[in-house]
Amino acid sequence: MKMKKTALQGILGLVIGLVAAGTMTFAGEAEKMGEGETTLYKDMFDQAAYSEGMNQLDLGRWGRRITHKTIPSADINIFDEVPDSSFFTNRHARQKMSAAELEKGPHQTDGPDLSKPLTVLGAEQQGSHYGFVVEDAKKDQYILRFDPQGAAELNTAAEVIGARFYHALGYNVPQTTILSFAADQLTAAPDAITCDNTGFAKKLTQTLLQQYLLFVPLPQGTYRASASKVPAGGDAGTFSFMGRGKKNPQDIVNHRDLREIRALGVFAAWLNHHEMLESNTRDAAVTENGKTVLKHYLTDFTNALGAATDGAKEPMFGYEHMVDYGETFKSILGLGFWESPWQKKWKRAGEKTISPAVGYFSNDLFDPAKYKNLLPYEAFRLVTRADGFWAAKSMMSFSDEDIRAMVRAGKYGRSEDEDYIVKTLSERRDIIAKYWFSRVSPLDQFVFSGTELSFKDLAVAYGFVPREGTLYRTEVVSGKKKITVLETAEPVVKLQPEWLAGNSAIKLVIRTLRPSSKKADPSVTVLLNASGVQGIRHED
Amino acid sequence: MFRENKLEQKKVLPFFCLCLLVFAASVHAEDKKTDYYAPLYAKPLAKSPLKDAVSRVIELPFKIAKWPIDKSLVLTENYRLDKKTLWIYDQLIENGVKPRLDSLDFTGVPAYGAEFDLVRIARQKERFPDFIAKSWVNHGVTSYFQAGGELGAQRIGETGLHVSSIVQYENRRDETFYGIGPDTSRGDSTSFIEEKTKVGAKAGYEFSSSLDVTAQVDYNHTNIKNRGHEGKGDITQIFAGENIPGLHGDAYMDFSIGLDRDTRDSKEDATKGSYQKLLIKFTEGVASSPARYFTYQLDTAKYFQLASPRRILAARLFGEFNQRVNGGNVPFYEMAKLGGSGMFPRQSQTSRAFVYNRFFGESAILLNLEYRYTVWQYKEFKMKTVVFFDEGQVSKDFATFRLNGFRESYGTGLHLSYSQLVLLSFNVAHGREGTQFYLENKLAF
Predict the structure, then answer these.
(1) Does residue A387 fall inside a structural domain?
(2) What pLDDT digit, counting tens, does each position of B270-307 carry?
(3) Would residue B393 count as lying in a domain?
(4) Is residue B49 one of the residues assigned to a domain?
């Protein structure tokens, strides 16, 4: 069932291989730099069996667990932000994107050019239906994915919406659009191949193609697919969420220690994207400033929101890993009477999904701390408080209207479905942000005026905690000497001119004190001199 | 007009200058504005190992072992070997060949075989959909061989009536024997070779998909060959002086009638429903065989859902009573037997803390209770934990059953299934004779 996705990637690989064959030099470069291929089975074995076992033999990991130490992200700059890289480009959180930009997503074309029939280069069975790789009149290639029977819009909308969100958050994703077409707008290429559930490749004929379409829903007389543009550049396989790409000279930091990779776990929880998998990534070799570099893509979001392969999301997805030793052990000890949250939730939902297009997606019993990806990647477990805060801050940069703009790209037929997705994502954004903001001093947007340092308390700004009663305690430290401790009710620290006399720098260690909490929150350290803010660091 | 324009210009000029000033100021401010996303690092980005040196050394042998596994998995997926294998299996079934794989015991000694639907193989299934012509071969390494065939019709004239004839040869090379009765010693063990040929005919009526009555007549010829066991003597030596009927084999006729009712949702891993199997059989020795007895056998099980399909209480009751007639006897190899997991190709009934064929008796009574609960689920895959209790006893007849003759087994296990098809079952059972382990691909009931 999950196999189907990988199968399409197989066809994609094949097609990309064919394209690459035409540009051998480029493909050669890609191969030289790529990390190779992580297929789903390998990914499952590596994560669910091998890594879970090896984690128990990792002395450093045990040491960290006992001493409650964390591994700080290694790619953050002095301001506790993630600079742009081949993995990530700061977008909406840095500069608000317009509603039109958000809805459009990564935009190179308006989608497949239907002025002439699309040429189908390959097809692969995906459970009950097929996925296609097509080429349009402009010679652009797309992967067409469909919805299963009885669940029109479910996967196609999830794919397009998921791509919009990850793009706006800053990740590289393929251009993905909703495509409506008639049966006669698809033509099998003379050398097209297909692979059905027999596992054997065979020639794709026009008759077979039309037969395949019989398994696809046909709402309002046209077929609906998500069209995902094959990224330009030579295919260099997938990338790891753990180690760095050793063949790629630009890839210096272990991916496990990249904040943007760790935060994928948080973003996946937001989008209910339980299949954030290495096998769903893609590296493409592109030329930038005359140099060949690898660009790291996230692909395939058909299982985001309430969707899963071949239908609505299974109730346990998001609550348990595929092989979850801890949960299984609890169940064994519970003699079958211990009910996991997903079971309670499923019961409370009356064992019903929301609608065919939405699938199974709600915030009932959703706990951001306990969201689990299908496979237990260590990177997602290593999210520190600072990483979580960064991710939450990025999520909160999206207003409800921004979310609606991106959901609109999914082109739901019923406004109730669109409203439900917007509402659920908005609520979930707040739940996640509230959780991470409560674990740090959620202070941001530091501005130094020369005499005072002002900042924004995001938890107050977004209405998660009341302004009344919140205090900001600041330790002013010069060198190793604590000069004073200030406590203010406003998010402002007034500075004495002598503290910044000459070119001396001071360190302000700021903590929030909430009326509901007896303890001060973890600190934010701001490094300051007369010319301004020199560094920011949220406590891990 | 011109004047007005001049006036306008007079007003506009200072405003324009002011704008320029504001713009210049803002540009200057922008220049000074900190770029919080700049690639400025506290220390240069550097390569670092994922683990400490000691952990890396510990991992090394595992890493070496992982490499071929990863390569095989990638190969499997890229060449779609999994799909191809499934397709080949489906094709075999479609074309009348049904492979089977069983396990004889925990050592994983496999029993394998195949059933051949000759009608399908001859491509005549569409023409003769109700015609039965099949044969089978099953083999267990070193200990078991079975071959047979069946010819008949599974439906006559659009009714539930079915008739068929059967021929089967079976050779069991290592059947253990510990004596007859509930108080035998496990130390007194030996084994025998059982070679059985059966020719029979049966006719029945299927009232519905869950209810069937079948009458059967069989001619059986059994050869018993004694052999040593674990360096010990054969039956005649170990049980010298004891009356063990059928020690040299027999030839006999079986006349039986059986009622089968089955409402389970799955024969492999039921979560609801029940089954009842009632058998009444008369056995009459032919030639010089003294075998002459009635067999009454009831095998029934019910599956209760405890407020959820994830919690199942399965209860099974088995009773067998062999009643000698007119001074005849019951050959020891046809007696009721208890011990082991009770799964094909084994013959003795489920009493898991005891070894296979541990108890022989003319009568037997057995209760199996299993609590099965789902502990893991991924799509159609399920893993269940099972806690079980077996209580059984063999005896000469029902009147001689006694409370202290019961032998209990208790234990636990894990079952892995896909879409109610059991893939793997691991059980451990404990009783007064120690602990037994089972690794199989079926459930006891």
Answers:
(1) no
(2) 999 999 999 999 999 998 899 999 999 999 999 999 99
(3) yes
(4) no
What is the tally of structural domains in chain B? 1
Min distance B64 CA to chain A CA atoms (Å): 12
* B244 within some domain: yes
Tell me whether residues B73 and A53 touch, CB distance under 8 A.
no
Say which CATH number the domain at A448 has.
2.60.40.10
Q: What is the CATH number of the domain that holds B313?
A: 2.40.160.50
pLDDT at res. B292:
95
Q: Which of B253, B192, B198, B258 is nearest to B225 (CA)?
A: B192
Interfacial A residues in 317-336 facing B (CB < 8 Å) = 322-324, 327-328, 331-332, 335-336
Is A393 domain-assigned? Answer: no
DSSP string, A142-158: EEEEEPPTT-TTHHHHH
Query: If you average pLDDT over residues B89-98, what whole number do you get?
Result: 95
Picking from A84, A247, A319, A332 by the largest number of B CB atoms within 10 A of its own CB, the best residue to mutate is: A332
Cα dihedral sign, A384-A390-A391-A395: positive
What are the CA-CA distances from residue B12 to residues B8, B23, B335 (Å)?
A: 6, 16, 117
pLDDT at A36 over 80: no
pLDDT in tens, B248-258: 899 999 999 99
- Residue B27 lies inside a defined structural domain of this protein: no
Task: Taking residues B322-351, report their average pLDDT.
Answer: 91
At A385-428, the pLDDT tens digits run 999 999 999 999 999 999 999 999 999 999 999 999 999 999 99
Q: Which domain holds residue B394?
A: 95-440
Task: Determine, yes or no, domain membership for A161.
Answer: yes
Domain that holds residue A448: 443-538
Residue of chain A nearest B383, judged by CA positions: A328
